[in-house]
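Pilot study result, target chain (169 residues):
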Amino acid sequence: MTAADKTLNDWLRDAHAMEEQALTMLKGQQSRLENYPELRERISKHIGETERHAQMIRSCLERRNTDTSGMKDAGAKLTALGQSLSGIFVSDEVVKGSLASYTFEHMEIASYTMLAEAASFVGDTQTQRVCEEILAEEEAMAQWLADHAGEVTRTFLERESTDAETAKR
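Predicted structure:
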């Protein structure tokens, strides 16, 4: 195995941990979104995509005769849990959650762009295709969040003036 293959395996383990972190964050957000049905529905859809992404990366690792990193996965989940719980204590949780999700999607976009290139470099076309497929879904989620950021912000501000608790979730 070349150094580039080892690096790709490390990066794939990082990507799996990233997906585990995303799942924890998204599920935390979803569980508290009561008054933003369109956002909740899109997050629910992305949870399904994210679960599939984690499985796809796990399959790539298995095909490459390696496995996920329990330590990285646990660390990522713990980080996400802290991020998710912090939303409980802010009055504008839905806006901050949308901002965090948009930022996280762009980290995923950058990661899968680089992973696809690394897979191409080592000649692993299957992993490259998987990363490109995941990349397209991450880009779609980021675009959805961008397209709806104004609406979420306006709705929050309108609700905040009459019922801060309703606006928050």
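One observation from the pilot: The chain has one domain: 3-168. A full batch analysis is planned for the follow-on phase.
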